[in-house]
Amino acid sequence: MRGRRSRAVSLLVTSMVLTGLLIPGAFAQPEGPDPAPGPEAAAPAVVDLDEIPAEPPARPQPPASHELYGADCDTLIDGSQVRATCHNGYPETDLLRLHVECDRWWDLDSDSAAVAVGPAGRIELVGRCWKEVRSAWVTHQRP
Fold first, then answer.
1. Are the CB atoms for 128 and 81 separated by under 8 Å?
2. Burial 69-105 (b: 16+ CB within 10 A, else e)
């Protein structure tokens, strides 16, 4: 039976060979006269300090389309039961749906009906599978 080299020895030998191939290229000098200067070899850029404003420009207000919206929900999966507790801390009503995806192919996934949660409202949504739950999430919709 032939002995096998260990992986560490193989990696060490490979790194030494690669280093030996790369070192001559690192010390190579181009032959011939210096290259002709191009546009990048032009005079250095000059900055006029009087053109720089004393204060940075004011930031524009963010667009109103990014308003905060949507209830905050905590989802708990316990075996085949799913419980989502949601609290709407915003001034608009939020329509919530609980979606449950079951782990078994023969177990039906479920989507709850939309439930309206008003400002400062709290609600609990419950769902289940016959066997294990793969995932569960809550979706939000404006009325």
1. yes
2. ebbebebebeebebbbbbebebeeebebbbbbebeee
Write the CA distances from 62 to 12, 55, 68, 70, 92, integer angstroms: 56, 20, 12, 19, 20
Q: How far apart are CA 131 and CA 138, in angstroms?
A: 20
Q: What predicted TM-score, i.e. pTM, was given to this entire model? A: 0.54
Q: Mind listing the pLDDT tens digit for each residue in 24-38?
A: 666 666 666 665 666
Instruction: Give the tokens for residue 100.
Output: 């449950």
For 78-95, how does the pLDDT look when each residue is reduced to its tens digit (9 = 90+)? 999 999 999 999 999 999
